[in-house]
Design a protein that fits this description.
Length: 305
Protein backbone atom coordinates (compact mmCIF):
# COMPACT_ATOMS: atom_id res chain seq x y z
CA UNK A 1 0.00 0.00 0.00
CA UNK A 2 1.42 3.37 -1.02
CA UNK A 3 2.27 5.79 1.74
CA UNK A 4 0.25 9.03 1.80
CA UNK A 5 1.84 12.03 0.11
CA UNK A 6 1.78 14.40 3.07
CA UNK A 7 3.27 17.31 1.12
CA UNK A 8 0.66 17.00 -1.62
CA UNK A 9 -2.18 16.71 0.90
CA UNK A 10 -0.93 19.86 2.61
CA UNK A 11 -0.69 21.65 -0.73
CA UNK A 12 -4.27 20.68 -1.57
CA UNK A 13 -5.43 22.11 1.72
CA UNK A 14 -3.48 25.28 1.05
CA UNK A 15 -5.20 25.80 -2.29
CA UNK A 16 -8.64 25.12 -0.86
CA UNK A 17 -8.23 27.36 2.17
CA UNK A 18 -6.71 30.48 0.69
CA UNK A 19 -7.46 33.24 -1.74
CA UNK A 20 -4.81 33.71 -4.35
CA UNK A 21 -1.80 35.96 -4.38
CA UNK A 22 -1.63 38.97 -6.66
CA UNK A 23 0.64 37.97 -9.54
CA UNK A 24 2.51 40.35 -11.85
CA UNK A 25 4.28 38.76 -14.82
CA UNK A 26 7.32 40.07 -16.72
CA UNK A 27 8.04 38.45 -20.09
CA UNK A 28 11.57 38.49 -21.52
CA UNK A 29 11.20 38.05 -25.29
CA UNK A 30 14.90 37.26 -25.81
CA UNK A 31 14.79 34.08 -23.69
CA UNK A 32 11.01 33.51 -23.72
CA UNK A 33 11.15 33.58 -19.92
CA UNK A 34 8.43 34.75 -17.55
CA UNK A 35 9.43 36.17 -14.17
CA UNK A 36 6.88 36.88 -11.45
CA UNK A 37 6.24 39.17 -8.54
CA UNK A 38 3.93 37.29 -6.17
CA UNK A 39 2.28 39.61 -3.63
CA UNK A 40 0.39 38.89 -0.43
CA UNK A 41 -2.97 40.65 -0.94
CA UNK A 42 -3.11 41.48 2.76
CA UNK A 43 0.21 43.29 3.00
CA UNK A 44 3.04 44.77 0.93
CA UNK A 45 5.11 41.56 1.18
CA UNK A 46 6.11 39.80 -2.03
CA UNK A 47 8.39 37.22 -3.61
CA UNK A 48 10.17 37.30 -6.96
CA UNK A 49 10.30 34.06 -8.95
CA UNK A 50 12.75 33.16 -11.78
CA UNK A 51 14.38 36.49 -12.59
CA UNK A 52 16.47 37.22 -15.70
CA UNK A 53 19.87 38.89 -16.12
CA UNK A 54 20.20 39.90 -19.78
CA UNK A 55 23.28 38.40 -21.44
CA UNK A 56 24.65 38.66 -24.96
CA UNK A 57 26.79 35.57 -25.69
CA UNK A 58 28.41 37.19 -28.74
CA UNK A 59 29.91 40.06 -26.76
CA UNK A 60 29.86 38.59 -23.24
CA UNK A 61 28.07 41.68 -21.99
CA UNK A 62 25.38 41.71 -19.32
CA UNK A 63 22.50 44.14 -18.99
CA UNK A 64 19.96 44.64 -16.23
CA UNK A 65 16.98 45.86 -18.23
CA UNK A 66 14.73 42.91 -17.35
CA UNK A 67 15.62 43.04 -13.66
CA UNK A 68 15.22 46.82 -13.57
CA UNK A 69 11.59 46.47 -14.68
CA UNK A 70 10.97 44.32 -11.62
CA UNK A 71 12.80 46.77 -9.38
CA UNK A 72 10.81 49.70 -10.76
CA UNK A 73 7.53 47.89 -10.07
CA UNK A 74 8.52 46.91 -6.53
CA UNK A 75 9.61 50.43 -5.67
CA UNK A 76 6.66 52.12 -7.37
CA UNK A 77 4.17 49.92 -5.50
CA UNK A 78 6.00 50.14 -2.17
CA UNK A 79 6.50 46.38 -1.93
CA UNK A 80 8.77 44.53 0.48
CA UNK A 81 10.67 41.63 -1.10
CA UNK A 82 10.96 38.72 1.31
CA UNK A 83 12.05 35.98 -1.11
CA UNK A 84 13.86 35.69 -4.43
CA UNK A 85 12.94 32.19 -5.55
CA UNK A 86 14.36 29.92 -8.23
CA UNK A 87 12.43 26.91 -9.50
CA UNK A 88 15.72 25.30 -10.67
CA UNK A 89 19.14 26.12 -12.10
CA UNK A 90 18.02 27.46 -15.46
CA UNK A 91 19.84 26.48 -18.66
CA UNK A 92 18.39 29.21 -20.87
CA UNK A 93 18.98 32.44 -18.98
CA UNK A 94 21.16 33.86 -16.24
CA UNK A 95 19.52 34.65 -12.92
CA UNK A 96 19.43 38.25 -11.70
CA UNK A 97 18.92 37.15 -8.08
CA UNK A 98 22.08 38.75 -6.58
CA UNK A 99 21.41 42.06 -8.34
CA UNK A 100 17.81 42.10 -7.18
CA UNK A 101 18.88 41.23 -3.64
CA UNK A 102 21.39 44.08 -3.61
CA UNK A 103 18.63 46.53 -4.56
CA UNK A 104 15.58 45.08 -2.82
CA UNK A 105 16.69 42.65 -0.11
CA UNK A 106 15.07 39.25 0.37
CA UNK A 107 16.48 35.72 0.71
CA UNK A 108 17.59 33.76 -2.36
CA UNK A 109 16.15 30.23 -2.25
CA UNK A 110 16.05 27.08 -4.37
CA UNK A 111 15.31 23.36 -3.93
CA UNK A 112 17.74 21.38 -1.79
CA UNK A 113 18.59 19.00 -4.65
CA UNK A 114 20.57 21.82 -6.28
CA UNK A 115 23.59 20.12 -4.72
CA UNK A 116 23.26 17.24 -7.21
CA UNK A 117 23.32 19.73 -10.09
CA UNK A 118 26.26 21.56 -8.53
CA UNK A 119 28.30 18.35 -8.34
CA UNK A 120 27.74 17.50 -12.00
CA UNK A 121 28.37 20.93 -13.45
CA UNK A 122 31.06 21.91 -10.97
CA UNK A 123 33.07 19.01 -12.36
CA UNK A 124 32.19 19.82 -15.99
CA UNK A 125 33.37 23.41 -15.65
CA UNK A 126 36.41 22.50 -13.55
CA UNK A 127 35.41 24.94 -10.84
CA UNK A 128 37.95 23.41 -8.47
CA UNK A 129 38.36 23.30 -4.71
CA UNK A 130 37.11 26.85 -4.23
CA UNK A 131 33.64 25.82 -5.43
CA UNK A 132 31.34 24.36 -2.77
CA UNK A 133 28.72 21.91 -4.01
CA UNK A 134 26.68 22.10 -0.82
CA UNK A 135 24.27 24.87 -1.77
CA UNK A 136 25.82 27.47 0.52
CA UNK A 137 25.65 30.07 -2.28
CA UNK A 138 21.90 30.29 -1.60
CA UNK A 139 20.32 31.71 1.54
CA UNK A 140 17.82 28.86 1.85
CA UNK A 141 17.51 25.34 0.45
CA UNK A 142 13.94 24.05 0.42
CA UNK A 143 12.97 20.41 0.92
CA UNK A 144 9.83 18.71 -0.37
CA UNK A 145 6.83 19.71 1.73
CA UNK A 146 8.60 22.59 3.43
CA UNK A 147 6.37 25.55 4.20
CA UNK A 148 7.19 29.24 4.31
CA UNK A 149 5.31 32.53 4.24
CA UNK A 150 5.15 35.59 2.04
CA UNK A 151 3.79 38.14 4.48
CA UNK A 152 0.58 36.49 5.70
CA UNK A 153 0.34 34.18 2.69
CA UNK A 154 1.10 30.49 3.15
CA UNK A 155 3.40 28.80 0.64
CA UNK A 156 4.71 25.26 0.20
CA UNK A 157 7.46 23.58 -1.83
CA UNK A 158 6.87 20.49 -3.97
CA UNK A 159 9.91 18.69 -5.36
CA UNK A 160 9.03 18.10 -9.03
CA UNK A 161 12.12 16.62 -10.72
CA UNK A 162 12.44 15.27 -14.25
CA UNK A 163 13.53 18.28 -16.26
CA UNK A 164 16.41 18.50 -13.77
CA UNK A 165 16.85 16.62 -10.48
CA UNK A 166 16.52 19.87 -8.53
CA UNK A 167 13.26 21.29 -9.94
CA UNK A 168 10.69 22.50 -7.43
CA UNK A 169 7.24 24.03 -7.74
CA UNK A 170 5.96 26.67 -5.34
CA UNK A 171 2.34 26.45 -4.18
CA UNK A 172 1.33 29.91 -3.00
CA UNK A 173 -2.29 30.21 -1.93
CA UNK A 174 -4.40 29.04 -4.88
CA UNK A 175 -1.50 29.29 -7.35
CA UNK A 176 1.40 27.03 -8.30
CA UNK A 177 4.58 28.18 -10.04
CA UNK A 178 6.05 25.19 -11.87
CA UNK A 179 9.17 26.53 -13.60
CA UNK A 180 10.01 24.45 -16.70
CA UNK A 181 8.11 21.32 -15.61
CA UNK A 182 5.16 22.10 -17.89
CA UNK A 183 4.36 24.55 -20.68
CA UNK A 184 0.99 25.72 -21.93
CA UNK A 185 -1.28 22.79 -22.89
CA UNK A 186 -0.68 23.34 -26.61
CA UNK A 187 3.12 23.10 -26.16
CA UNK A 188 3.41 20.26 -23.68
CA UNK A 189 6.25 19.44 -21.34
CA UNK A 190 9.88 20.16 -20.54
CA UNK A 191 12.82 18.36 -22.12
CA UNK A 192 14.45 15.66 -19.98
CA UNK A 193 17.84 15.18 -21.62
CA UNK A 194 19.95 17.38 -19.35
CA UNK A 195 22.24 15.62 -16.82
CA UNK A 196 20.03 14.07 -14.16
CA UNK A 197 16.86 14.60 -16.20
CA UNK A 198 14.50 11.68 -16.67
CA UNK A 199 11.21 11.41 -18.55
CA UNK A 200 9.67 8.81 -16.23
CA UNK A 201 10.48 11.01 -13.27
CA UNK A 202 8.90 14.01 -14.98
CA UNK A 203 5.77 11.95 -15.64
CA UNK A 204 5.46 11.21 -11.92
CA UNK A 205 6.08 14.85 -11.00
CA UNK A 206 3.40 16.08 -13.39
CA UNK A 207 0.90 13.51 -12.16
CA UNK A 208 1.59 14.83 -8.66
CA UNK A 209 0.98 18.41 -9.76
CA UNK A 210 -2.21 17.46 -11.60
CA UNK A 211 -3.54 16.05 -8.32
CA UNK A 212 -3.88 19.58 -7.00
CA UNK A 213 -7.44 20.99 -7.03
CA UNK A 214 -8.60 21.60 -10.62
CA UNK A 215 -9.15 25.33 -10.04
CA UNK A 216 -5.51 25.86 -9.03
CA UNK A 217 -3.92 28.57 -11.14
CA UNK A 218 -0.67 27.39 -12.77
CA UNK A 219 2.03 29.84 -13.78
CA UNK A 220 4.77 28.77 -16.23
CA UNK A 221 8.34 29.93 -16.72
CA UNK A 222 8.32 29.95 -20.55
CA UNK A 223 6.17 30.19 -23.62
CA UNK A 224 7.53 29.54 -27.11
CA UNK A 225 4.44 30.50 -29.12
CA UNK A 226 3.54 27.22 -30.85
CA UNK A 227 2.15 27.21 -34.37
CA UNK A 228 -1.43 28.36 -34.55
CA UNK A 229 -1.20 30.81 -31.64
CA UNK A 230 -0.39 34.52 -31.98
CA UNK A 231 -0.14 35.64 -28.35
CA UNK A 232 2.24 34.56 -25.59
CA UNK A 233 0.61 32.88 -22.60
CA UNK A 234 1.91 31.68 -19.26
CA UNK A 235 -1.14 31.14 -17.04
CA UNK A 236 -3.38 28.07 -17.11
CA UNK A 237 -5.08 25.80 -14.56
CA UNK A 238 -4.72 22.27 -13.32
CA UNK A 239 -8.03 21.42 -15.00
CA UNK A 240 -6.87 22.76 -18.38
CA UNK A 241 -3.56 20.92 -18.21
CA UNK A 242 -5.23 17.66 -17.24
CA UNK A 243 -7.72 17.93 -20.08
CA UNK A 244 -5.62 19.38 -22.88
CA UNK A 245 -1.86 19.08 -22.38
CA UNK A 246 -0.63 17.53 -25.63
CA UNK A 247 1.99 15.40 -23.83
CA UNK A 248 0.53 14.72 -20.40
CA UNK A 249 -3.24 14.99 -20.44
CA UNK A 250 -5.21 12.52 -18.35
CA UNK A 251 -5.10 9.06 -19.90
CA UNK A 252 -1.55 9.20 -21.29
CA UNK A 253 0.49 6.31 -19.91
CA UNK A 254 3.99 6.61 -18.56
CA UNK A 255 5.35 4.42 -21.36
CA UNK A 256 3.64 6.55 -24.02
CA UNK A 257 4.99 9.76 -22.54
CA UNK A 258 8.55 8.47 -22.08
CA UNK A 259 8.74 7.27 -25.69
CA UNK A 260 7.35 10.54 -27.00
CA UNK A 261 9.58 12.69 -24.79
CA UNK A 262 12.76 10.81 -25.67
CA UNK A 263 12.00 11.02 -29.39
CA UNK A 264 11.34 14.74 -29.10
CA UNK A 265 14.46 15.42 -27.01
CA UNK A 266 16.64 13.69 -29.60
CA UNK A 267 15.71 16.41 -32.11
CA UNK A 268 16.34 19.44 -29.86
CA UNK A 269 19.48 21.60 -30.03
CA UNK A 270 21.20 22.67 -26.85
CA UNK A 271 19.87 25.95 -25.44
CA UNK A 272 21.73 29.00 -26.74
CA UNK A 273 22.75 30.12 -23.25
CA UNK A 274 23.26 26.69 -21.65
CA UNK A 275 26.97 27.01 -20.85
CA UNK A 276 27.00 30.54 -19.44
CA UNK A 277 23.67 30.09 -17.65
CA UNK A 278 24.34 26.91 -15.74
CA UNK A 279 27.77 27.85 -14.44
CA UNK A 280 26.33 31.10 -13.08
CA UNK A 281 23.01 29.74 -11.83
CA UNK A 282 24.49 26.89 -9.78
CA UNK A 283 26.16 29.70 -7.83
CA UNK A 284 22.86 31.49 -7.11
CA UNK A 285 23.39 33.87 -10.01
CA UNK A 286 26.73 35.17 -8.78
CA UNK A 287 29.14 35.95 -11.60
CA UNK A 288 32.75 34.73 -11.32
CA UNK A 289 35.10 36.94 -9.35
CA UNK A 290 37.31 39.24 -11.46
CA UNK A 291 40.79 37.96 -12.24
CA UNK A 292 43.99 39.95 -11.81
CA UNK A 293 43.19 42.16 -14.82
CA UNK A 294 39.82 43.09 -13.38
CA UNK A 295 37.84 41.05 -15.95
CA UNK A 296 35.37 38.26 -15.14
CA UNK A 297 35.53 35.08 -17.23
CA UNK A 298 33.13 32.24 -17.93
CA UNK A 299 34.42 28.83 -19.04
CA UNK A 300 33.55 27.10 -22.31
CA UNK A 301 34.20 23.33 -22.20
CA UNK A 302 35.29 21.96 -25.58
CA UNK A 303 33.84 18.67 -26.89
CA UNK A 304 32.38 17.91 -23.46
CA UNK A 305 28.64 18.57 -23.82
Amino acid sequence: MALPDIALETARGLVAAHNGPEVKAFFDADTFTVSYIVKDPGSNACAIIDSVLDFDPASGRTRRSSADKIIDHVQREGLKVEWILETHAHADHLSAAPYLQSKLGGKIAIGAHITAVQRVFGALFGLGADFSADGRQFDRLFHDGEQFRIGGLDALVLHTPGHTPACVSYVVGDAVFVGDTLFMPDYGSARCDFPGGDAATLFASVRRLLSLPPQTRMFLCHDYLPAGRTDYRWETTIAEQSADNIHLHAGVSQAEFVAQRRARDATLPMPRLLLPSVQVNIQAGHLPEPEANGVRYLKLPIDAV
